[in-house]
Design brief:
The chain starts with 11 loop residues before the first helix and ends in an 11-residue tail after the last helix. By secondary structure, the protein is of the alpha/beta class. The protein has a domain at 7-256 and 468-485: Alpha-Beta Complex (Amidase signature (AS) enzymes), CATH 3.90.1300. The longest helix is centred in the middle third of the chain and has 27 residues, at 304-330. It is built from 15 helices and eleven strands. A hairpin with a 5-residue loop joins strand 10 and strand 11 (460-467). The protein has an eight-stranded mixed β-sheet with strand order 4-6-5-10-11-9-7-8, with helices on both faces. Strands 1-3-2 form a three-stranded mixed β-sheet. 39% of the residues lie in helices and 12% in strands.
Length: 496
């Protein structure tokens, strides 16, 4: 394949401009992307399905009229992104053979934007873990350190973008799954406002409104232009985000004004933050002051135990729905061994959860939106660390041998008290490294990871900004200002 020698130097917007100017062809871009995947992915395991022949055929066809990303290579996360003729496994053995016959509405919007889909990226089973280590495909590795996780659940997409397979990739976020891997891989990642992008035709909402879909990108402008291309409610959507005043792309480079920024170096829903992550927050707060913003140390008053319990109840219920939905898709009941052990136990927990407890959890999370709305009546954004620690080693969140023995016992004899005690332990371990992301899935606010910090040994450490409901515009303006002040897009992991 001939390809385009400078392919990895450009973001999606830059590649699109080259295609529009006739300086490079879509086929050259697709060939370049294929070459990188074939050369590097044996080490990363980011791409679990390769659709190269269809991508090359698409590259030889004229792009849709006025497409913002004509011929730009793109990858889909292997979760909820139905693409007719391509497997949709959700990282689970239960769906290993499932192939949809239709496109998700979001995927249709990707195609209408001129993006060329090369395949699917790795994800944990049903997207439930903050790491990407499904038993079906094995772990995805972080391009910055192959012994460490790229995070989850959009870890395959983030690793692929960090390794320059593609300049941007589809991602989704139900508890931090865009922001977590963006932090771990040194990328920009925005979780949109609840209802900003479509989930149809297969879903009206996911995880009780927690989960939103968008992308991980190298640059702020790519994220904004992708959101312009994909935002807006789908047919029959139960709710919609407020209509933006103008295209999000117009916010990139627009002066953000003198923002009121609250920051905390603490953990919103947990106990502690690693010193290097605290340092990233304090350095970012200092940078924001230098840029002319009013920066105040402040944090919302939260009932951490209640919010954590509510999030776990709803996340476990969402995971159980995913398992039941998988059985419907494949047309037969799930059998022992179809689900990973932890997921199997969580399904049993969900089936023993009472309706009144589910209603309480929903009420609690809806109240969270009011709490955060009141807090942000005094501030424009809230700054925190994205993660509690730098990217952790592959396997660090695996159950210990003793925990696995208990899991197997409880899976076989699901006594309710044991189930509830075990799920609290599992949830505590999974939430410990991600105490600052789930809150904004509960509240529905937009939140973004900005890659402004690296450890001394070269690992990315992101910071998170959360904005008011419906106000991605402020986040994009601030992110572009930070990107100009501390550029990150040219940082590249040493993969070759």
């Amino acid at each position: 394949m001939a390809g385009f020698a400078e392919y990895a130097d450009y973001d999606a917007t830059g590649l699109a401009e080259l295609v529009t100017a006739g300086e490079v062809t879509p086929r050259e871009l697709v060939e370049s992307a294929i070459e990188r995947i074939e050369r590097l992915d044996a080490r990363l395991n980011a791409v679990v399905y390769r659709d190269f022949e269809r991508a090359l055929e698409a590259a030889d066809r004229p792009p849709p009229d006025d497409a913002p990303f004509p011929g730009v290579p793109f990858l889909l996360k292997d979760l909820h992104a139905a693409y007719a003729g391509a497997p949709l496994t959700s990282g689970s053995r239960a769906l290993a053979d499932y192939v949809p016959d239709h496109n998700a509405e979001l995927v249709d919007r990707h195609l209408q934007a001129g993006l060329i889909i090369l395949g699917k990226t790795n994800t944990p089973e049903f997207g439930l873990a903050p790491v990407t280590e499904p038993e079906l495909f094995g772990p995805t590795r972080n391009p910055w350190d192959l012994q460490r996780t790229p995070g989850g659940s959009s870890g395959g997409s983030a690793a692929a973008v960090a390794a320059r397979y593609v300049p941007a990739a589809h991602a989704s976020d139900g508890g931090g799954s865009i922001r977590i891997p963006s932090s771990a891989c040194g990328l920009f990642g925005l979780k949109p406002t609840r209802g900003r992008t479509p989930l149809g035709p297969d879903f009206a909402e996911l995880w009780f409104g927690f989960s939103q879909a968008h992308a991980v990108t190298r640059t702020v402008r790519d994220s904004a232009r992708l959101l312009d291309a994909t935002c807006g409610p789908g047919v029959g959507a139960p709710y919609a985000a407020p209509t933006p005043a103008r295209p999000f792309a117009d916010e990139v480079g627009a002066p953000p004004g003198r923002l009121r920024i609250a920051f905390t170096t603490g953990a919103l829903l947990s106990d502690d933050i690693d010193p290097v992550c605290k340092e990233a927050v304090t350095e970012t707060a200092r940078l924001c002051e230098e840029l002319g913003h009013d920066v105040v140390e402040a944090a919302p008053d939260l009932d951490v135990e209640e919010l954590t319990d509510a999030f776990v109840v709803l996340a476990v219920a969402g995971g159980a729905f995913e398992a039941d939905y998988a059985a419907r898709l494949r047309g037969r009941p799930l059998e022992r061994g179809d689900l990973e052990l932890v997921q199997s136990v969580l399904v049993k927990v969900a089936k023993k959860t009472s309706a009144d407890r589910l209603a309480w959890a929903l009420h609690t999370t809806r109240q969270t939106a009011q709490t955060m709305g009141r807090f942000l009546s005094d501030y424009d954004v809230l700054l925190t660390s994205t993660l509690a620690e730098p990217p952790w080693p592959i396997g660090a969140l695996d159950p210990s041998p003793g925990e696995k023995r208990i899991l197997k016992l409880v899976d076989a004899v699901p006594a309710r008290p044991l189930l509830e005690a075990l799920v609290r332990q599992i949830s505590g371990e999974l939430l410990r490294p991600i105490p600052n992301t789930p809150l904004f899935n509960m509240s529905g606010q937009p939140a973004m990871n900005v890659p402004l910090h690296w450890t001394d040994d070269g690992l990315p450490v992101g910071v998170q900004f959360a904005g008011r409901f419906g106000d991605e515009a402020t986040l994009f303006r601030l992110a572009a200002q930070l990107e100009e002040a501390r550029p990150w897009a040219d940082r590249t992991p040493a993969l070759g």
